[in-house]
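Render Oxidoreductase in 3D.
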Amino acid sequence: MGILAPARLETLDFRKLLQRDQFELTKLLKACQQQGFFYLDPADLNSPRGFDDRLEAISVAQKWFDRPLEEKMKVHQDSVTKGYKPPGTSPGVVKNMKDGYESMKMPRDDFISGSRFLPEGLKADIELFRRDLEFSHYITTTILSCLSDLLSPTPRFEDHHCGTEASQSTMIYFRYLKQAAGKSNSGVGHNKHTDLGTLTLLYSPQGGLQVYDQASSKWKYVATQPGCYIVNVGDALRFLSGNQLLSAIHRVVPAPGYEMEHRYSSAYFLRPQNKATFQTSENTFVSALDWHDTKYRIFKASHEEQEKNTILTGGFDVQE
Ligand SMILES: O=C(O)CCC(=O)C(=O)O
Ligand SMILES: [Fe+2]
């Protein structure tokens, strides 16, 4: 996919955001308005294991992905927030080819209700996964509170994310399959999209993520930064902010030179409570649950269907 320029993203310091450091808050607002993406250094003296839990959870998920497909399919569910998703269920990054990733999804509501939903090979580590999810929830809701301080929305953004209300917030662990030599019909990557929810807290030790720069109409690669999460704004937060914040278009491609290895990543998707409402890029008033379901219908539709409107890319056009 050619040599691309790197995206120039800010690195924010979580400790300074917690302290409401004015300079850091200004950087946060600019990053969310202009790029919709930033790195976050999670150093937090109160939760020293937070980021380490993410690394460990990825390595447990990594081993689980090595299990046979038939075993993983036992926890395949007709759900986009819960259970196993095999590779190739949606259009991928290459026209007329499917996606190239499998994933295991763990919804926040299931941890809260105490449901025993994790399969063999993962269930022994349920407390690790719970900590990873709750730390990610804490980080994303703290960022949300900073954004409310900055933009003074009524009600505050957090008020659409009441912890006890049902939501589609979920943690997802991904494996992008290596590209078999000379085999061109396997799925590839993760198609262009904007995230549908509020904030995404992503981590991957490997490259492949690209963000679309609207000013230059070019894809830019997002370099990995050791010890840092990548945070991005989703559609729901853009809509709740009256389009002041940007949900940036991104995708995942096989990183040049690394096509022959699997890529692992994980993301916590903070989403508003199901019954929150907002006006979308299509000028419709919908609930957060409706937008979630609409967006997933489009994620799964054919490339031709996807091109009929701009729902996939949050109301924005992509020149390719
Ligand atoms: O795997 C990644 O790096 C990104 C995944 C992603 O963009 C998504 O699932 O929304
Ligand atoms: Fe995404």
